[in-house]
Amino acid sequence: MAMLEIRDLEVNYGAINAIKKISFDVNEGEVIALIGANGAGKTTTLHTITGLHKARAGSVMFMGKDIIKLPPHKIVQMGMAHVPEGRRIFQQLSVYKNLTLGAFTRKDKKGVEESLARVYERFPRLEERKRQIAGTLSGGEQQMLAMGRALMSDPKIILMDEPSMGLSPLLVEEVFRIIRDIKAGGTTVLLVEQNAKKALEIADRAYVLETGRITLRGNAKELMNDDSVKKAYLGE
Amino acid sequence: MNFLSYLISGISLGSVYALIALGYTMVYGIAKMLNFAHGDVIMIGGFVMFTAVSSAGTSPLVAIVCGIIVCTVLGVVIEKVAYKPLRNATPLAVLITAIGVSYLLQNAALLIFGSAAQSFPVLIEVPDWEITEGLTVTGVTLVTICVTIVIMIALMLFMRYTKPGAAMQAVAEDRGAAQLMGVSVNSTISLTFAIGSALAAVASLLLCSAYPQISPYTGAMPGIKAFVAAVFGGIGSIPGAMIGGILLGVIENLSKAYISSQLSDAIVFGVLILVLLIKPTGILGRKMAEKV
User: How many CB pairs under 8 A join A and B?
Assistant: First the structure.
């Protein structure tokens, strides 16, 4: 049984049928990339999985439980973290407060402290700036904070929406290094990216989303050599 | 020493505005709506205390506790019944509903208690304090200022150091992101209404003790003034509501004393217009950071 099973998911976005019966699986320990052009429905898919957006039909099974009708905070409690598009850190709060909000659902104080120590170890810049108001961080630092905040919940799976968007090439490298690192730590990752090349490089498997439909699926390495993927997403 | 005594009673009046303004500003910041029924919750609180003492013959302390409990529950129920179903409706629909709730409460009170003002019993028995010759502060004024200071400090600590406080700040800034942290928006909004309404009950005790009368319209004018105070200080900002409320009370009282008691309200609103012309977000209001 897969950790996350999406079956025949249909989502409306306003009057538009944004997601048309998609099905895919994410197994424990995998990095799965969801690639596609702007407006293909990637973000909508993630929002529907975490309950921010209501589905019209279909099911989302997370660790054997149908979560499609659950509110977001219940889903987060089950061990799913979501790094949203545009980071959406709490700009007016301190870096430290942002991180503690990431652990909002946790009751184990000691575990939270350990997670905080690990986040600071992984992102030393965040520790240096823990008292700073998050809105004053640079774009790269804000992305680190968004990822650190997600890790604070000690999640079983992290959904990441365009983590490399708007970052310099050096920072893009850094972001993907961290995703590899997260995977090595045993956390499953569902990654949505426009940077298909980078995403396919680190993913185990990938799905290609085109105007609300999954048009291609398979092993990431194989997809990298697929002619249509090369043409449409890798610019070759 | 006249000026000082006007100033002190202005601060006391302003403290009451500030307590009410906190309810407006917290609900606005977190639930993104203007709860125009807030002023009438004050009135209900006053009537609960009035009835408890005058009809049921309870002690002042029991009456005060009853008032706070009834207001807290009332605030939460109003939100659940009237506003929650409109969570995704247009702001105008919510605003009209709030005005409707305001009339409902006023008319319910009219039906039960009649329209005539009744005298409010003495619930706060604190001796006056003569600071110097000719400068005496009444017990109610003293209690008002002290209670307000304690409540404000407690509220600041609550927002800064507790989990529900952090949840409120998170929901205020980005509801969706707060949900992704595992924050329940519904319970956070309920808690906001509970706190705001409890503060309204305290405000009604202080208000009805300073001006010992109660009628179904008792809450209307202080409610509007407090709303002005919240806008004045920067709506959505807790320190802003505190500063706005106290400034408003002081300006109102000093204009009553030195300019004209008929014009005092006009002066208060004139100052509001002036402040908003210079700084449209209010004294402490922040422009929301642009989304990158």
Answer: 73
